[in-house]
Structures are given as structure tokens and as C-alpha cells.
Please model this.
Amino acid sequence: MLIMRLKENTDLIEFIKTVKKCRQDVFFRTAEGDCLNLRSMLSQYLFSVMTGNKELLQNGKIECQEAADYQMLEAYLRV
Model:
């Protein structure tokens, strides 16, 4: 499982739309260890609330269960 971070100034609405197209689950993990499954509507809501805290978004990690999903999300991710 690769671990990537969101690029700065990512269009989060487009990112979530792309996450919905992924084959497997995509997770956002905060530096504190909280984990959101971004294919869940509740988690998407919580993730959208985080947009007010840029540091939290930049320090969090994106994890995909399937390698092919990283390719779908590559426009939004950085190492």
C-alpha cells in the first residue's frame, strides 16, 4: 500500500468525484491517526469540513487499497 499526500490547492470536489470512481477504498489518515474512508458519505462530509484547516489536509496521508487507484488520483497526489 502506497502512502501519498494531497497536493496544495487541490480541487477537493473534483478529488472526491474521482475517489468515487476508484475500485477499492481510499483512506485519508490524519497525523493524529484518525482514518476516514473517502468512499463513505459521512467521511466525505468530515473531510470537507477539514478544508478550513490547510495544515491538517497537508499533513494527512492518502492510502489506496489498490495500486490502480493511485493512477486515477495521481493529479491530486504528491509523494
User: Anything to note?
Assistant: DSSP finds four helices and five strands in the chain. The first strand starts at residue 3 and ends at 6. The chain has a mean pLDDT of 92.
